Amino acid sequence: MAERKRDDTASWDAQEVRRAQAEHQQRHSVQKRRRINPLMYILFVVLTSAILAEIGWLLGSDLCGFNKGPKEDVNIEIVSDDNIRTIANKLKDAGLIKYKWFFRFYAGMTGAKDEIGIGTYKLNTDMDYNAMINGMHNASGNLEAKTVKVTIPEGYTVEQTIKLLAKNGVNTEENLLEAAKKSKFNYNYINNNSQELSRLEGFLFPDTYEFYVNEKASNALNRLIQNFDRKMDEGRLEEVEASGRSLKEIIIIASLIERETDGSDQAKIASVIYNRLTGPGDKAGTNGLLQIDASLLYALPEDHKTITKADKQMDSRYNLYKYAGLPPTAIANPGLASIDAALNPEKTDYYYYALGKDGKHQFFTNYQDHLNFVNSSEYKGN
């Protein structure tokens, strides 16, 4: 019994020692904590708050469109393969946003994928996130809507373009024709007071497009005009101004080149047009008459393939055998090569050209040489 009592006493003593040690360590830890410099603690809190406030300000500024370098009319193209991540990348690369992850977060919270649609949009750094998303809205559909790709060839007329769009299910031919005649398009080179198809001629840029199936007709046509507007960049507009002619006149000349070219001689054909418009004429006396068959064919029914003597007497401003100068509108939608040729014609003395059986045009400075070629076996004829 005495032994057991001593053991119990020893055990109790050991427990007391451990408890005393634990209390000592706890007091020591508290003392260590109390040794933290209160000034350092305050400084830490202030710095942390400042950092968080700065981050909040930066994110808020990006969200609200504050403190960004000025960028106006930045073109952002959205295609059906895009998603919020790739759209954020495009906006970042264009300098419209700073924080891609934050834009993605905002877009996800606001359901932006249901608002953004395919198309090319003009945005700027004054826009906040919401304005950008609204600016990329397409009333015809969103990124998940069914689409179709359509390639519009260079030299197609408005009527041919509309038929191609209708064939591919963009909208009905009837709706597209009505939109082409009556819709208002916000471009100063389009006559919104006219209800003729020809008011859009030359401005529906030939290219490959992705449309919504059953897209709103005016939206579809506006996309083509918007592409033309984008292609006529600052450099080309400066060339237009330097030419002394209006944009409309340049596009009319480009359309004549487009319908007459064999694909390699745009600048030479341009020289003939300008020589006839501005030159003194040669001994045959062109007298400002362009005598371009393609313009007369534009005024004739679509199935009319050749020009007759009777056709050349037709009373139409598109009859350039009868009326000097340019036709009243473009006769097709030219590509960039023809537009650039109209802006930069070759310097030649040519007044005539004719198409050979080899598919190439031959150019002449005088009527007799031209006539000799036309009467030869090398001439392709109408």
What does this structure look like?
The chain has 382 residues and is mainly alpha-helical. 48% of the residues lie in helices and 7% in strands. The chain is built from 14 helices and six strands. The protein has helices at residues 2-34, 38-64, 84-93, 100-110, 129-135, 158-167, 173-182, 217-231, 234-243, 247-260, 266-278, 293-299, 336-343, 367-374; strands spanning 74-78, 119-123, 147-151, 208-212, 352-355, 361-364. Strands 1-2 form a two-stranded antiparallel ribbon. β5 and β6 (361-364) form a beta hairpin. α3 crosses α4 (100-110), α6 runs antiparallel to α7 and α10 (247-260) packs across α13. The longest helix is centred in the first third of the chain and has 33 residues, at 2-34. It is elongated. The protein starts with a helix and ends in an 8-residue tail after the last helix.
Query: Using DSSP, what is the number of strands?
Result: 6
Q: Within the largest sheet, what's the order of strands? A: 1-2
What's the SSE pattern? HHEHHEHEHHEHHHHHHEEH
Q: How would you state the average pLDDT, rounded?
A: 87
Rg over CA atoms? 37 Å
SS summary, helix count: 14
Write the SSE topology.
Layout: H1 2-34, H2 38-64, E1 74-78, H3 84-93, H4 100-110, E2 119-123, H5 129-135, E3 147-151, H6 158-167, H7 173-182, E4 208-212, H8 217-231, H9 234-243, H10 247-260, H11 266-278, H12 293-299, H13 336-343, E5 352-355, E6 361-364, H14 367-374
Antiparallel strand pairs: 1-2, 3-4, 5-6
